[in-house]
Specification:
The structure is a single chain. The protein contains two helices and three strands; from the N terminus they run E-E-E-H-H. The radius of gyration is 17 Å and the shape is elongated.
């Protein structure tokens, strides 16, 4: 009876006006190759965040969506919100 665990990114979504990236990781436990448990972990990335620790797929999506102009607009939006 061998137990094994594996994790993988199973969903990447682009959400909202500012193109936030929602990443879902699946954590799977298997006994003798048969799945016995699965849990999920989600985290959200916004254009002002460092993505160096993310998977290559997530980095590629961020690079494609978050242009310099988009990042500047998001930074201005955050600054306007802190004044309210």
């Amino acid at each position: 009876m061998a137990l094994s665990e594996r994790s993988y990114i199973d969903k990447i979504e682009i959400v909202g006006e500012w193109k936030a990236i929602q990443v879902r990781r699946a954590d799977v436990v298997e006994r003798d190759g048969v799945e016995i448990a699965r849990t999920f972990h989600r985290h959200v990335l916004t254009p002002n965040m460092d993505v160096t620790g993310e998977s290559s797929d997530v980095k590629a999506i961020c690079k494609a969506l978050w242009t310099t102009a988009h990042k500047k607009k998001y930074k201005a939006y955050l600054a306007s919100q802190s004044q309210n």
